[in-house]
Amino acid sequence: MLVTRDDVLAFDREHLWHPYASIADPAPVRQVVGAAGARLRLADGAEVVDGMSSWWSAIHGYRHPVLDAAAHAQLDEFAHVMFGGLTHAPAVELGRRLVAMTPEPLQRVFLADSGSVAVEVAIKMTLQHQRGCGRTERTRMLTVLGGYHGDTFHAMSVTDPLGGMHRMWRGMLPEQVFAPQPPRADAGAWEIAAWADAFRTVAAAHAGELAGIIVEPLLQGAGGMHPYPAACLETFREVADEHGLVLVFDEIATGFGRTGRLFASELVVPDILCVGKALTGGYLSLAAVLTSDEVAQGVSASDSGVIMHGPTFMANPLACAIASASLDLLTSSDWAASVQRIGTALRAGLAGLRGLPGVADVRTIGAVGIVQLDHGVEVAAATDAALAQGVWLRPFRDLVYVMPPYVTSDEELDRLVRGVEAAVRAG
Predict the structure, then answer these.
(1) Distance (Å) of CA 343 to CA 92, 120, 184, 364, 366
(2) What local confidence, expressed as pLDDT, does residue 172 receive?
């Protein structure tokens, strides 16, 4: 058994592969030995405010007593059972909550085991629906530049092929259709109209081969942390209806209040909605794909007659039980006020960074704060500088950003702002 911090870190360096990391020259990592609220406790004794919500999932913070109790209660019953031919109360209860809190047409729920898998399922549903409608020639997806939808192959295929992190896979992925990136959130009416015209033109040029549209509504996440106008969602819906396309909203990163709305789908209703990340409050991996009866009937009319997907850990009871508790916790709280409080603090705190050398832009949406540099971030230096301020950040590309837990206190928000400034100055 590895006991000391040095032992743990040495084994990690020699044997464990971290995300987006080199095995030949691994970047330094920090060992977490405890977590509570919005803070992480590191093996060196430091206690740091988590500005990442563990990649945007831990909206209630760590070791929340309600979620801990849900986990313990389900463990006392059973942790897992296959979903093929069986069902269980945690899955049914979670499905009931999701149907109740999302737009009315979204009545059918597929419980997947990760965000990327949810995107794969959504694309598969789209393609099967078109086949069931007799449109077998419709095999491509339409999306916009600047997006990110996950690391599996079809998810990578609808991620930005030029500036995205998966551009090395061009030529090996399904070839999808890309329209221009939506304008900035503060764009004027003429800019939005010009973009909408361009999007419509691309869609019309490929209409006969398109099966659906997939986008991240309101905020493009790991593709560049790009907020855009709500009016663009109406264009997506209108184009989908005009050409008989299935509209997919990927709200894996933005759902459950992060943008200031519970879901962007409250503004414009998609045909398929993907959620994940914050679904379990960051406790376990779980995602869901919700769709309408119309799409579901199309899938059922396709060659197979069934949805052709079935993960081993689909509808894991432990994850479902925690997810239901997480959703109850969210909807019984004044989450909107928390998101607004965080957003106000980030807007005020980060505004002064606009004048710093190397800063290209500062922007916020909901409980998200973003500083874009005019160069790639020196991640190691930026991370060290943030940690020196008692803050955990994970910069990438040219971005230093925060998406803190909703329970983050005002004092912790002040510390996060200081950490971002330190990271920007160092990176």
Answers:
(1) 34, 32, 18, 7, 5
(2) 85
Residues 6+ apart with CB under 8 A from 302: 128, 129, 131, 132
Phi/psi at 69 (nearest 5 deg)? -65, -40
Distance CA 270, CA 403 (A): 25
72, amino acid identity:
H
Instruction: Render pLDDT for 180-212 as a digit per residue (tens, 0 to 9).
Output: 999 999 999 999 999 999 999 999 999 999 999
Binding residues for pyridoxal 5'-phosphate: 115-116, 250, 311-312
Distance CA 43, CA 90 (A): 35
Residues annotated within a binding site for substrate: 55, 148, 277, 310, 394
Which among 27, 58, 33, 48 is positioned nearest to 419, based on CA atoms? Answer: 48
Write out the two tokens for 10.
Answer: 């040495």
Q: Please, are residues 177 and 245 in contact by the beta-carbon 8 Å criterion?
A: no
* H helices present in 102-230, as ranges: 115-132, 153-157, 189-206
Mapped to the 3 state alphabet, what secondary structure does 331-363 carry?
Answer: HCCCHHHHHHHHHHHHHHHHHHHHHCCCEEEEE
Please report, to the nearest 10 degrees, the dihedral formed by the alpha carbons of residues 277, 215, 237, 99 taken in order: -10
User: Does pTM top 0.85 for this prediction?
Assistant: yes
Q: Which residues contact 200 (CB under 8 A, 6 or more apart)?
A: 235, 239
Q: What is the pLDDT of residue 2?
A: 65
Please list the active-site residues. 20, 148, 250, 277
